[in-house]
Design a protein that fits this description.
By secondary structure, the chain is mostly beta strands. The protein has 1 helix and 11 strands, in the order βββαββββββββ.
Length: 205
């Protein structure tokens, strides 16, 4: 058999950026002390979010650092050099032992971020294809799951991990199997200023 050479292109990806934060953002652990309310979404159990959805307003220096990391990502990797962004909303999440969240995405934002200021010993963040069943046929289980055939992508965060992803990307917190509550800081980003051109232009102030 002749040697086969193939080029595979993962077209139009929904990138997930994972960054190890090496500046001091330890003050953000104070978000654990904020007042939380229980989420009542169908498909969730023992999940809570802060009543305040702009918690980073109390941590301006840390918010500026998170935005600086995002600017590195969007400039160096996405190449959106001429588009500016700001953090629109920010909130703490809490998942009790045995708890989990439903699949969801974030509306009215362009990108979303999650910062893990604490060790996460239970409960992955799991991303799902925007279409959980995109195939016309139900194929047999692949011999190996990879980035080209996966419908789900679980990610185990560590302390001081910062994630960025498009806000349309569906995700959830899997079951927290640890004896401790699982915390994180979530936030959304929107463009600012004038974007696009011509009859598609819009100004965000």
């Amino acid at each position: 058999m002749t040697t086969i050479s193939a080029s595979i292109y993962p077209l139009f990806s929904s990138p997930l950026a994972s960054i190890d934060v090496r500046v001091d953002l330890s003050r953000l652990a104070e978000i654990q002390q904020f007042e939380y309310r229980k989420t009542n979404e169908i498909g969730s159990s023992e999940t809570y979010i802060t009543k305040n959805n702009k918690v980073l307003n109390y941590y301006q220096a840390e918010a500026d650092m998170l935005l600086e990391y995002f600017y590195y990502y969007k400039d160096e990797h996405l190449k959106f050099l001429s588009t500016d962004f700001r953090i629109s909303t920010s909130w703490g999440t809490k998942t009790n032992p045995g708890g989990y969240s439903q699949y969801h995405n974030h509306k009215n934002s362009a990108f979303s971020g999650v910062f893990y200021f604490d060790d996460v010993s239970g409960g992955e963040i799991e991303f799902a294809s925007t279409n959980l069943d995109p195939q016309s046929f139900q194929f047999n289980t692949p011999s190996e799951v990879n980035i080209l055939n996966a419908k789900l992508f679980p990610y185990t965060p560590r302390k001081n991990t910062l994630l960025f992803f498009p806000s349309y990307l569906i995700h959830r917190v899997t079951t927290n199997k640890s004896p401790n509550a699982r915390y994180s800081l979530a936030f959304n980003l929107i463009p600012t200023g004038e974007i696009s051109a011509g009859d598609s232009s819009v100004s965000f102030k």
